[in-house]
Design goal:
Elements lengths: L6 H24 L3 H20 L4
Length: about 55
């Protein structure tokens, strides 16, 4: 017997896949890689923590 397929779910899945592909292309063209963003965020967090540690009350 054939497998039942929900066409609405398939259309949504295809749309999500296309959006993800477009987002990846735009990120590669215009932005930072995920690793670079994570590194940048980690450095900012570390600098903020370092500065807060030296704060006088």
């Amino acid at each position: 017997m054939a497998e039942i397929v929900n066409l609405r779910a398939k259309r949504k899945e295809a749309a999500r896949k296309e959006a993800r592909k477009k987002a990846d292309e735009n990120a590669a063209k215009h932005g930072l890689t995920k690793a670079e963003r994570n590194l940048q965020k980690a450095r900012a967090d570390q600098a903020r923590a370092n500065l807060d540690g030296k704060k006088r009350e």
